[in-house]
Amino acid sequence: MKEYGTTLTQHSRKTYKPKFYINAENYQRWILIDRCGRHFGAILNFLRDGTVALPESTRSISELHAEAKYYCILDLADFCDRALQNKQKEPEPICRVPLITSQKEEQLLISSSVKPVVKLLINRHNNKYSYTHTSDDNLLKNIELFDKLSLRFSGRILFIKDVIGSSEICCWSYYGNGRRVAEVCCTSIVYAATQKHTKVEFPEARIYEETLQVLLYEDRNIPDQELLQATASVRGIGTGISTYTSDEEEIQVVDSRV
């Protein structure tokens, strides 16, 4: 510290006045600097080389700026000042969509979010059969609608994308207060004359409906039951999670009951 202190006092002899500590045993003079040493290496590198690589984060640059002002290193302080001004000019992204990397991360995001959550699972690798001729277009439409909703409601809803899920190919899930309240599955298996095919649908109206429904969980511990009943149309909310089925599947269910 003695050598480093000499470097500092030589650089800013007129203004920087460190405190001295006298060792009673060997009468050597040491400089006591009552500061955090996190950015001290950057300070010394600047004194030695005349330049230094600034940290990435605004907070770290602000901390280094404060240290430079404390040590009266005006050139470094100005350097940090210009970097902070440039940071302020950089546009902040208005929409961030987390990309899930693990199931644990997904659970953490959903449970810790104070906003309602909309998750889109997109994973073509889960398919075992060939797609129908409209499936590719519908898959793209689902992705485009997700991007559109993310930009429109990012301030009120947390949108997350899952590309590693192993259960579905294309599925929308809706969460309120940390639990799943609705689901729109966009895939089904259709039977041709010789083989099975995977069909991807684009239930646009249903997706919009569930997105608006999940907003009822915004700033509420429990959604207003009267609002839920007023906005529900043959959804069976009182029986549990709202799910979407294709028209073909509904016809099959009706036929089986008849």
What does this structure look like?
The longest helix is centred in the middle third of the chain and has 19 residues, at 135-153. The protein folds into two domains: 2-89, Potassium Channel Kv1.1, Chain A (2-Layer Sandwich), CATH 3.30.710; 99-250, Glutaredoxin (3-Layer(aba) Sandwich), CATH 3.40.30.10. With 258 residues, the protein is α/β, with parallel strands linked by helices. It is built from nine helices and eleven strands. Helix content is 41%, strand content 19%. The strands form three sheets. The chain has a six-stranded mixed β-sheet. A three-stranded mixed β-sheet has the order 5-10-9. Strands 1-2 form a two-stranded antiparallel ribbon.
Task: Quote the beta fraction.
Answer: 15-25%
The Rg value, from CA coordinates, equals 30 Å
CATH class group of the largest domain: Alpha Beta
Q: On the 0-100 scale, what is the average pLDDT?
A: 79
In spatial order, strands of the major sheet run 3-6-4-7-8-11
CATH topology of the largest domain: Glutaredoxin
Q: What structural category arises from helix and sheet content? A: alpha/beta
- The CATH architecture of the largest domain is 3-Layer(aba) Sandwich
Largest sheet: 6 strands, mixed
- Give the domain tally: 2
Helix content: 40-55%
**Helix-strand pattern, N to C?**
HEEHHHEHEEHEEEEEHHEH
SS element count, helices: 9
Q: Unreliable segments (pLDDT under 50, ≥5 consecutive)?
A: 1-6, 236-240, 247-258
User: What gap, in angstroms, lies between the N and C termini?
Assistant: 90 Å
Give the overall shape: elongated
Organism: Pseudolycoriella hygida
InterPro entries: BACURD1-3, SKP1/BTB/POZ_sf, T1-type_BTB
Protein name: BTB/POZ domain-containing adapter for CUL3-mediated RhoA degradation protein 2
